[in-house]
Amino acid sequence: MERTGFKEWAVICAALGAGEQSLILRKGGLAEGREGFSFRHPEFFLFPTYFHEQYELTSWTGERLTEATPDQISIQFFAKVEEATVINSWETVQALAPLHLWQEAVVRERFDYDEAGRLHVALVRVFRVEPTWILPNEKRFGGCRSWVTLPEPSEALRFGPVLSDAEHAERAARFRDLIGTSDSGSRT
User: Fold this and answer.
1) Rounded CA gap, 80 and 115, in Å?
2) What is the residue-level pLDDT of the chain in tens, covering all 188 positions?
3) Is 154 helix (H, G, I), strand (E, B) or coil?
4) What is the DSSP string of 62-115?
5) Rounded distance between C-alpha atoms, residue 139 and residue 176, angstroms
6) Bridge-partner residues for 6, per DSSP?
7) What pLDDT, on a 0 to 100 scale, did the predictor assign at position 134?
8) Distance from CA of residue 121 to its chain's centroid?
9) Distance (Å, whole) CA 146 – CA 155
10) Model-level pTM?
11) Residue 32 has what pLDDT?
């Protein structure tokens, strides 16, 4: 099993886990290395990060999440990348707005992050992790980077899909229609 964690805002992890969105939009972290960001792992645990401004930067209407304790990380969701692409058209990025919770200004900032004007987008299938996997919050998980190596997960962890197969297939078809692909599972 993968030991990879993908660092994402806690509110986005909650939205993915509630089935409110199935996309991850990424420009990359400051510590991504020479190659920059890519969805190089086909599956990963969602590693929630907390800072209070994230609520104002999304259209989240649910209850505000609070970190159980700063000394612990609660891993509640696992994701499998079904399709990953780089979008170079701002119009295409804008068309994806109904499929995620980020405010347009945040998405635009990510799109304009480098001079190329692009955004990494992944369609993911999300699974609930039971029981919640509690990790100590170690220094090695810090920093502005997307990927972290986690300890070996317990064999007792179980995974259940957040969306039914039909709901996920409908969302995937809508995504592919918006970005102009019909190929399922393509990765870039």
Assistant:
1) 30
2) 679 999 998 999 999 999 999 999 998 555 566 667 889 899 999 999 887 567 778 877 777 666 567 788 999 999 999 999 999 999 999 999 999 999 999 999 989 987 778 899 999 999 999 999 999 988 888 877 789 999 999 999 999 999 999 999 999 999 999 998 754 444 44
3) coil
4) SPPP--S-TTEEEEEEEEEEEEEEEE--HHHHHHTGGG--B-HHHHHHHHTSST
5) 39
6) 46, 147
7) 93
8) 9
9) 25
10) 0.88
11) 63
Task: Give me the amino acid identity at 168.
Answer: H
What does the pLDDT read at residue 183?
46
- The answer to whether the beta carbons of residues 124 and 173 sit under 8 Å apart is no
- Asked if residue 165 lies in contact with residue 63, where contact means CB atoms within 8 angstroms, the answer is no
User: Is the Cβ–Cβ distance between 49 and 73 less than 8 Å?
Assistant: no
Q: Tokens 């990424």 belong to which residue?
A: 26
**H-only helix segments in the chain:** 10-17, 90-95, 104-111, 165-179
Which pair of tokens denotes residue 162? 């957040």
- Start-to-end Cα distance in the chain: 22
- Using alpha carbons, select from 45, 7, 27 the residue that is nearest to residue 133: 45
Residue 121, classed as helix, strand or coil, is strand
Residue with tokens 């920059």: 36
Structure tokens at 112: 């304009």
Report CA-CA distances (Å) from 159 to 74, 103, 115, 152: 15, 30, 40, 16
Place of tokens 């692009």: 118
What letter represents residue 61's amino acid?
A: T
